[in-house]
Design a protein that fits this description.
Elements (H helix, E strand, L loop, with lengths): L1 H19 L6 H15 L2 H4 L10 E5 L2 E7 L8 E5 L4 E5 L2 E2 L2 E2 L8 H11 L7 E4 L5 E2 H7 L1 H5 L2
Parallel strand pairs: 4-7
Antiparallel strand pairs: 1-2, 2-3, 3-4, 5-6, 7-8
Length: 153
């Protein structure tokens, strides 16, 4: 499992590198972005070893990136989604998967998951969602095809 998670981290670092290559980021800025992505895509054992400066709800700026940190509790009680507005990308961790959602028995609960889904529904349909594992998707696809977006209220 840890090997699989490291593979996911490396794949997503490559995606992030493609985005960062467009900008002249300092090594500090790159490290902060990698820290955020590693928090999303890595196993809990690795997450607990990382300390990112920007891990709280609200808006942050790292280099040219304006990032909204959104509490999306439900999978766990401290789950967050990172929304890169200009790039129209969300990194959702284990909150949303393609046509599914994360489990709610790992410290989260169904009530919080419903609130988080309803919060995310209000964002732009064209946003690309990168979950913690599996295929990427779009918010419009999830609104159409994810049964949890349509049955949980």
């Amino acid at each position: 499992m840890i090997g699989e998670n490291m593979s996911n981290i490396n794949k997503n670092k490559k995606k992030l590198n493609k985005i960062m290559d467009k900008y002249n980021l300092t090594s500090y800025e790159k490290n902060e972005l990698f820290c955020i992505i590693n928090k999303i895509f890595s196993h809990k054992e690795f997450q607990n070893r990382m300390t990112c400066k920007f891990m709280h709800h609200g808006k942050i700026t790292i280099g040219p990136f304006d990032i909204e940190v959104i509490y999306t509790k439900g999978h766990t009680n401290d789950s967050v989604t990172y929304y890169f507005k200009e790039e129209k990308i969300m990194f959702t961790g284990d909150f949303i998967f393609k046509n599914s959602i994360g489990r709610t028995d790992l410290g989260g609960n169904t009530k919080d998951m419903i609130e988080s889904i309803n919060k995310i529904k209000h964002y732009d349909d064209s946003i690309i969602i990168y979950p913690g594992h599996g295929e990427y998707t779009t918010l419009s696809s999830e609104k159409e095809n994810n049964e949890f977006f349509n049955t949980l209220h």
